[in-house]
Design goal:
By secondary structure, this protein is an alpha+beta fold. It is 45% helix and 13% strand.
């Protein structure tokens, strides 16, 4: 087994999962739903929301839609894990292994929410001083695979209004960056962006001298005389 590749795969996964889950559990048990804390001025806010499983606060509504999304996440994480195992075993590009590990860690982080948070937490309520309870005596708020993903990172760096002369959106409020997300989402986005930007380098096949074509000899060949 490629020890260097195995470390490059496992360290990001376990590090991101630990940080992601600790932050989510803290937010869930200390914040009311919709509560905000201004960390750095108006551009970095901890804003607690929950969604049904998609990244950056987007939702996939309906009981069956939620179940489908959770199962799809599990399947996708399994495929990524299999690909990482293949890369490690074949001594693949170490940076590609790290990139894949970021995506896998993010996927697993949100899968944990979907699978278990409904079982181990009481429902978060939008009332001041009403955080959720971990392992409530009356049971959780949702069955297995139907938990909600916890989001809390909000970076409204730019808060402005569209000029009135712009069609359709003139006069409307514009916020960049508007979505609320979590550390798992950030890991997925980082891994995907890195793979897209450096794809030619990450997916470049290693040079194999065994399959190198023979070079054409230089100079005039010495043909035998008739």
């Amino acid at each position: 087994m490629n020890k260097k590749g195995l470390i490059a795969a496992l360290v990001p996964v376990f590090s991101i999962l630990m940080i992601d889950q600790l932050v989510k559990i803290y937010i869930k048990t200390h914040y009311s739903l919709g509560e905000s804390v201004f960390v750095a001025g108006d551009w970095f806010i901890l804003h607690f929301i929950e969604n049904n499983g998609m990244s950056f606060g987007m939702e996939f509504t309906g009981t069956y839609g939620k179940l489908f999304l959770t199962l799809f996440r599990i399947l996708a994480a399994g495929v990524i894990a299999w690909y990482l195992h293949k890369l490690v075993k074949s001594r693949g590009n170490i940076y590609l292994i790290i990139t894949g590990s970021l995506v896998l860690a993010g996927a697993i982080g949100n899968i944990i929410d979907c699978m278990f948070y409904g079982l181990i937490f009481s429902e978060s309520m939008p009332y001041p001083g009403s955080p959720a309870i971990l392992f409530p005596p009356d049971g959780g708020y949702a069955p297995f695979l139907h938990g909600k993903v916890v989001d809390m990172l909000y970076f409204p760096v730019v808060n402005t209004t569209w000029p009135s002369w712009i069609p359709w959106v003139g006069g409307d409020q514009f916020t960049f960056f508007a979505p609320v997300f979590n550390i798992a989402d950030a890991a997925i986005t980082t891994g995907v962006l890195f793979a897209l930007i450096f794809q030619k380098w990450l997916f470049k096949k290693p040079h194999d001298p065994a399959v190198e074509e023979p070079k054409t000899p230089t100079g005039t060949p010495d043909y035998p005389q008739a």
